[in-house]
Amino acid sequence: MRIATWNVNSIKQRIDSALAWLAERKPDIVCLQETKCVDDAFPREPFEALGYNLAVHGQKTFNGVALLSKFPFDEVNTGLPGDDRDGTGHWTARVPELGLVGVVSVMPEAVPWQPELPGGWRLRGMATAPEVRGWGIGSDLVDAVVDHVLGHAGTTLWCTARLAAVGFYERSGFTITGDPWEEPVIGIHIHMHRPVSRAATPAEAGIADGR
After folding, report:
1. Domain coverage including residue 49
2. What's 183's domain CATH number?
3. Could you tell me which residues are beta bridge partners of residue 104?
4. Which long-range contacts (CB under 8 A, 24 or more apart) does 190-194 make?
């Protein structure tokens, strides 16, 4: 099986090059990035004529992805959980020599142990590559999330943290609340939270401990 990826930088502008390349190389699965095309305007027919099934998730002007497959899709899910919520954001960190080394997402979601508190946002999917830990990349990602939440009038940032990551989150201003629990397959987790004002304390932000 041959799998290929291509940052196509506008599928409409490069459709002739893409079709010629596909006809020559004949990959089984192709992941296209930066299609820069909304779903309804994606030029499906030429790719289907080459025998590909298509799944697209596009945006006008920027971003957008498409999956081309010689095999039928059993199920197609576009976006990530929470993407339909206003303000949801995703960040990546890259370094020239290593490529992608960090990711994080944030979305508006009430604090589970204090759902009446307005302005709750959930940090999730936080990860950095082992070889760059200690470089400050994780802290930079958290800072980007905090700035985003502040810009959307959020008051509280919370997450479910792996026990091994508790120290990192504490250094980033988070506080443990409640007791740990076992998540099937991925291990023990615990709730943590922080105000999104770097100067404020949890009490000043109105956050109860929850323990």
Report:
1. 3-69
2. 3.40.630.30
3. 91
4. 190/160, 190/161, 190/163, 190/166, 191/112, 191/113, 191/158, 191/159, 191/160, 191/161, 192/158, 192/159, 192/160, 192/161, 192/166, 193/111, 193/156, 193/157, 193/158, 193/159, 194/156, 194/157, 194/158, 194/169
In tens, the pLDDT along 135-175 reads 999 999 999 999 999 999 999 999 999 999 999 999 999 99
- Counting Cβ atoms within 10 Å, is residue 186 exposed (0-12), middle (13-18) or buried (19+)? exposed
Q: Is the entire prediction scored with pTM above 0.70?
A: no
Whether 114 shows a pLDDT value over 50: the answer reads: yes
If pLDDT is split at 50, 70 and 90, which confidence band does 206 have? low
Number of domains observed in the structure of the chain: 2
Output the CA angle 185-55-125, nearest 5 degrees: 30
Q: Find the radius of gyration of the CA atoms of the chain.
A: 21
Q: Are residues 57 and 100 in the same domain?
A: no
Using the structure block, give the residue that is written with the tokens 């830990």. Answer: 133
Q: Which amino acid is at 48?
A: E
- Which is it for strands 99-108 and 89-95: parallel, antiparallel or unpaired? antiparallel
Q: What angle do CA 110, 111, 112 make, to 5 degrees?
A: 100
User: CB-based contacts of 19: which residues, under 8 Å, 6+ apart?
Assistant: 46, 47, 50
- Cβ count within 10 A of residue 36: 18
Max Cα distance, the chain (Å): 63
Q: Integer distance in angstroms from the first to the last C-alpha of the chain?
A: 52
